[in-house]
Design a protein that fits this description.
The protein has 9 helices and 13 strands. By secondary structure, the chain is of the alpha/beta class. The strands form 3 sheets. It has a 7-stranded mixed sheet with strand order 9-8-7-10-11-13-12, sandwiched between helices. A 4-stranded mixed sheet has the order 1-2-3-4. Strands 5-6 form a two-stranded antiparallel sheet.
């Protein structure tokens, strides 16, 4: 059963068929928190009976929150509203044998990236230097350190809350000395200390990936290596998401005067809205 099907079934049983039709979103589980994605125009308070039912059905769920559409604030985080259970937003989340302490109201975390975290880790070769430009609480960076054999993973975030959790998670997972947490703007840190440092650059922040792409290229050793570009690809009716994503990156490289590269993979991670897809492109700069 998918998380979306689960949410609809509970809504149908608790509130009726007509209400269940409104819930095209899904529920995500992060540690012992359940996060219900709220459809646009729906009052989060209406979801409280569903939240109470989630607590009844799943003994490991201790707190239920509503995730409001859109992102806001200096660090562009999703807003959450508490619905039921313990009134706390901090939890310990386990993924691929690693433990991550996070507060969902202060740090971005999504179980939807579970497969992507390990996919990228398996691409990292022994001895690589990796720069993660938007590291959050350190999930990509720490999973790479635990499951590959990189020399260093420079793990950057501008959000001080994310940085503090990242520092704690590095110690929690015993990857000190491999993962190097850095607080600040990735642009400035690349210019200041990470030019020509990396074999591989991660850009897991779709809203800023194209803007920061020149700095990802500067971080590569001798302007060669891998860049993982994450985008929100919005398509028109009948347009192919893969073609749109490919063209978007090609146009940006053309603006930057980069012509010797290969797009080795274009992969859809999930749908994030009507005709909006979160995608990743694995790009080899030659």
């Amino acid at each position: 059963m998918t998380r979306g099907t689960l949410l609809k079934r509970i809504a149908r049983e608790v509130l009726g068929e007509e209400y269940a039709k409104k819930l095209w979103k899904r529920v995500e589980f992060v540690g012992d928190l359940a996060l219900i994605r709220v459809p646009i125009g729906l009052d989060p308070a209406e979801l409280r009976p569903i939240a109470e039912e989630l607590l009844n059905r799943f003994s490991y769920v201790k707190s239920v929150w509503a995730a409001i559409p859109g992102i806001e604030g200096e660090y562009r985080l999703r807003k959450y509203v508490w619905l039921a259970g313990e009134a706390r937003s901090e939890t310990v989340y386990k993924e691929h044998g690693c433990l991550f302490k996070v507060d969902v109201t202060k740090v971005y975390v999504s179980p939807s990236l579970n497969y992507e975290h390990m996919r990228v880790a398996r691409l990292v070769k022994p001895g690589e230097v990796v720069v993660n430009m938007f590291a959050g609480a350190g999930l990509f960076s720490i999973i790479i350190a635990k499951h590959a054999k990189p020399f260093k993973v420079y793990s950057i975030d501008i959000n001080p809350h994310a940085y503090n959790y990242m520092v704690e998670n590095v110690k929690l997972n015993k990857v000190d000395g491999v993962v190097v947490p850095l607080l600040g703007d990735a642009k400035e840190l690349v210019e200041g200390r990470l030019k020509n440092a990396a074999d591989r650059v991660l850009m897991p922040y779709p809203e800023l990936a194209l803007e920061y792409l020149p700095y990802a290229l500067k971080a590569l050793k001798c302007n060669k290596g891998w860049v993982h570009v994450y985008l929100h690809s919005k398509v028109t009716k009948g347009e192919n998401w893969k073609d749109r994503s490919w063209k978007t990156v090609e146009e940006r490289f053309k603006e930057l005067g980069v012509d010797d590269y290969e797009i080795a993979l274009v992969r859809k991670i999930r749908n994030v809205g009507p005709r909006i897809h979160q995608v990743v492109l694995d790009v080899l700069i030659k």
